[in-house]
């Protein structure tokens, strides 16, 4: 049997799933409840950390009144929102309007069910893995739930019967489509290297070397796409307050608004946990700790390593929000379709070719030649892209200089298009104004001054 056939047979067997499906019902219930409580506590702590850390970044204090060091601020915010009057706009589709926040929040909780937090442990006398469940296509479940979550934003914007909310929903759908393609392509490189779609198997494949090192381009692109997937700054165009009031949440308040807020932060927790699972070695101890501490990857210790990696990725969300300005919508779409997706396509092609050569026991010279060819093609494409960007900037500079020159020559150039004063407005109900002369204009100004001053 060839190495490729052996790998396919291993995929079909999925031996890593033998530890799942044997738990008593009460162990499964405890795991599900622990996941729910963990996510809710993470949301409260993340909201507080969002405000505290950004406050320090921006030379100001964060919340410091509610509870010791302001730790209960998020809890009191939730209580305040729940006590607000819950209004439903007149004329909306009530069922869809009410269901949209739930549709946005529930899929994020489901995705966390396939995240491995540790190896098998003794839980109340039962040997069970620190993971609710695993599936032969567990990694695809994460993508499926991410795609379902956007339905809540779209339906909320559509059901609100508001132009701002509808525009926010449309932006959310277009943004998720473009960035989910790049995110899925990041997953493809991981699948190729690990040879499995199970999350526990992907973690096991990183025992020696994390995929964040081996597949660095996929990891970096995933970090960008996970921010776009969660509608966080600098990619929060679906709820851009300066452009469309509040986006798809414009007509929502009280607990419905809270559900949208909850969905955003739970999604952040989910994509951060996925990054730890797929690229940062999952629950395996960081480099050096496993050597110095022989039992680092046994018992409950791996849960600590997983949590530290998780907190580090969550900090990146706050860092990006406090450091980067919001991009324009055309820049957002251009980054997704013209930069991230092409880079991913070239990268996973290179990974697949090299992986197949390794499985077929190709000589190192052939593998080196293939890697050199892909590297040269990538550098050439990058140079061509830089030239095109430079040329576009030069053309933009010429256009702006021409517009500036024309604006100096004609004060009306570039202004808001208004109909001429002598044209009939609003159909035939308002007659056209007579042509104005200098004398008539002076007489009119004197008349208006007299009406105002009483002279």
Automatic annotation (TrEMBL):
Q: Name one GO cellular component term.
A: plasma membrane
Q: One Pfam family name from the record?
A: NADHdh
Question: What keywords are assigned to this protein?
Answer: Cell membrane, Membrane, NAD, Quinone, Translocase, Transmembrane, Transmembrane helix, Ubiquinone
Q: Which GO terms describe its biological process?
A: aerobic respiration
Say which enzyme class the record assigns: translocase
- Self-association or partners: how does it assemble? NDH-1 is composed of 14 different subunits. Subunits NuoA, H, J, K, L, M, N constitute the membrane sector of the complex.
Name the chain's protein: NADH-quinone oxidoreductase subunit H
| Species | Nocardiopsis flavescens
**Taxon lineage:** Bacteria, Bacillati, Actinomycetota, Actinomycetes, Streptosporangiales
């Amino acid at each position: 049997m060839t190495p490729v056939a052996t790998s396919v047979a291993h995929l079909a067997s999925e031996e890593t799933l033998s530890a799942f499906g044997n738990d008593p019902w009460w162990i499964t219930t405890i795991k599900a409840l622990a996941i729910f409580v963990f996510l809710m506590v993470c949301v409260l702590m993340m909201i507080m950390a969002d405000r505290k850390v950004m406050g320090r970044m921006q030379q100001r204090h964060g919340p410091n009144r509610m509870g010791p060091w302001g730790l209960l601020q998020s809890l009191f915010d939730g209580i305040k929102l729940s006590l607000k009057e819950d209004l439903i706009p007149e004329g909306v589709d009530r069922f869809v309007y009410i269901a949209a926040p739930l549709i946005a929040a529930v899929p994020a909780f489901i995705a966390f069910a396939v995240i491995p937090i540790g190896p098998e442990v003794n839980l109340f006398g039962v040997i069970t893995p620190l993971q609710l469940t695993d599936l032969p296509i567990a990694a695809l479940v994460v993508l499926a739930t991410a795609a379902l979550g956007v339905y809540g934003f779209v339906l909320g914007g559509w059901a609100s019967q508001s132009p701002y909310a509808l525009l926010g929903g449309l932006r959310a759908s277009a943004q998720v489509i473009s960035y989910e393609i790049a995110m899925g392509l990041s997953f493809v490189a991981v699948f190729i290297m690990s040879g499995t779609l199970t999350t526990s198997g992907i973690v096991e494949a990183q025992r020696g070397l994390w995929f964040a090192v081996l597949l660095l381009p996929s990891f970096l692109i995933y970090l960008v796409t996970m921010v776009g997937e969660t509608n966080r700054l600098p990619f929060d165009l679906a709820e851009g307050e300066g452009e469309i009031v509040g986006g798809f949440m414009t007509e929502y308040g009280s607990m419905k608004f809270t559900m949208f807020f909850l969905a955003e932060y739970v999604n952040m927790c989910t994509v951060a946990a996925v990054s730890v699972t797929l690229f940062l070695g999952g629950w395996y101890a960081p480099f050096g700790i496993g050597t110095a501490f022989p039992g680092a990857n046994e018992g409950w210790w791996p849960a600590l390593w997983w949590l530290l990696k998780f907190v580090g990725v969550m900090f990146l969300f706050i860092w990006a929000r406090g450091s980067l300005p919001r991009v324009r919508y055309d820049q957002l779409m251009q980054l997704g379709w013209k930069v991230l997706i092409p880079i991913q396509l070239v990268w996973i092609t290179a990974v697949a070719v090299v992986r197949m050569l390794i499985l077929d026991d190709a000589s190192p010279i052939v593998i080196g030649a293939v890697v050199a060819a892909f590297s040269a093609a990538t550098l050439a494409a990058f140079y061509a892209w830089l030239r095109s960007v430079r040329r576009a900037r030069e053309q933009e500079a010429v256009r702006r200089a021409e517009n500036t020159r024309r604006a100096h020559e004609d004060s009306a150039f570039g202004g808001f298009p208004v109909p001429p004063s002598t044209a009939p407005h609003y159909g035939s109900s308002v007659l056209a104004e007579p042509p104005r002369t200098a004398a008539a204009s002076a007489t009119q100004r004197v008349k208006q001054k007299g009406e105002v001053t009483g002279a």
